[in-house]
Amino acid sequence: FLSLSSSAPSAATGAEGSQYRSRNDQRIARKWRTIDSVRQGKLEGKKSEAVPRRYIRQSSQSESWTQMKLSSVAVTIMAGLCSRPCLSFAPTILSSMARQSGASTRLFADVAEAQTADPTANGESAPTKKKVRTRRILSGVQPTGSLHLGNYLGAIKQWVEFQDTGAFAGAETLDGDKFEDDPNVEIVNENLFCVVDLHAITVPQDPGELEESTLASAALYIAAGIDPAKSKVFVQSHVSAHAELAWLLSCATPMNWLERMIQFKDKAKKAGTESVGVGLFTYPVLMAADILLYQADRVPVGEDQRQHLELSRDIVRRFNGEYCKGGPYKKRCKKAGIPSYPVFTEPEAMIVKAGGARVMSLTDGTNKMSKSDPADGSRINVLDPPKVIRDKIKRCKTDSLPGIEWDNPDRPEATNLLNIYAAVQPGRTQEDILAEVGDMKWGDFKPVLAEAVVAHLEPIQTRYAEVRADEEYLRGVLKEGAEAADAIAQRTLKAAKVAMGFSIPF
């Protein structure tokens, strides 16, 4: 630009100077238009050699400025610093550069407007890009005995609902609040459902029955609606990291925390402390390891597991606070090639209320339906034949009061049977059900309840027979699920070992 501006007089005054500047401007503008035409291949009947070499050289200089990505504003400033004649052709230069680089030829005010332009000025809402976060849900059932109606309605049926809808109906936090997701975050659910056979051996088991119970439980998961294409199904003992992390956490958990566990006290009292194994005392730590291995931030449980979830949260705080802070921890993580954030995610309990999470015993409406109850008539097993189901319901405990009602503390059996009736007929309200059966006598209601349960379980039993008959398919599903679970679990286990200072193999 300096070479161009130096060709004009530096100080022209009066009419002569003004006339000179006008002719000079026109001459230079014509030269630049010629250069542009040659460059763009639009000059017809002329050879590029007709353009003076000095202008080609000046054009090359202009290209070098463009390659340096100078903005139109910068060019205007430079032109303003040159002699006065240069100002008159600065817009032409800017126009030439704009055609080459696509830059705007507008000046300071226009640039400011462009920088502060409102994306909604044209009435169009600016698209909001949502964050994507993976949320893992983990749950499992022991394979001891046969899965009963309480296991199905209170757990497996809820898993299927979550798998298909991404939500648990009626689920609450430990404080009784409803779960609400951030609308600006897109949640991708990752479901992990396991058969917790390691928990089953906390009480004596028949080795000949444990394997069959494990495979039967997995087949029932699939028969009830768990889709291996959407959820991972695996056996707990097939992922060795469960037992290994349980030992690490046991060494970091105070004994008095486990002494407060109510379930241990109840089971030890029934079995006698002399015959109870250490595993029954420490199994809440194994349960914590199950959850923490997969960084599950929400765990669907019933009311009876609330205390165990609180223990898991306490273990997370203690471990992260003791092993995951300070410079030495960061150095260990850097050496191992892993991030230096705390190892474990603190889980939230999803207390599942809907669908019969607390199905009670048929012989005592104040006790939970349980596989460990020696009386088989106290429970309805999912695989019970229709005749057995009808007989059990016919003989179940009831009261002598007239009518049937919900939520009367003096009539726990009435509430329990109505809960079962509602759970096997999804979509019906309490008012609708009471309008149908509220005035019935027990002798009239029991057959109605039995037929509803039989009709609900029949397709599950049919599908179970198909899955269990194809053992190759079943074991393939479990193998695929275990491999996917192990890939996640090993990362967490490695991080826990690094935090505690173990030597990690290369």
Order of helices and strands: HHHHHHEHEHHEHHHHEHHEHHHHH
Q: Cα-atom Rg, whole angstroms?
A: 38 Å
Strand order of the largest sheet: 1-2-3
Distance between the termini: 63 Å
Largest sheet: 3 strands, parallel
Task: Describe the protein in words.
This protein has 506 residues and is mostly helical. 55% of the residues lie in helices and 7% in strands. The chain has 20 helices and five strands. The longest helix has 30 residues, at 471-500. The two termini are 63 Å apart. Mean pLDDT is 78; it is low at 1-18 and 42-117.
Please sum up the structure shown.
By secondary structure, the protein is mostly helical.
SSE topology sketch:
Layout: H1 2-5, H2 14-40, H3 53-67, H4 72-81, H5 84-101, H6 108-115, E1 131-141, H7 149-165, E2 185-195, H8 197-200, H9 207-224, E3 231-235, H10 241-250, H11 255-259, H12 262-271, H13 278-293, E4 298-301, H14 306-323, H15 327-336, E5 348-351, H16 386-395, H17 412-423, H18 430-437, H19 442-469, H20 471-500
Task: From the structure above, extract its key features.
20 helices; 5 strands; disordered N terminus; mainly alpha
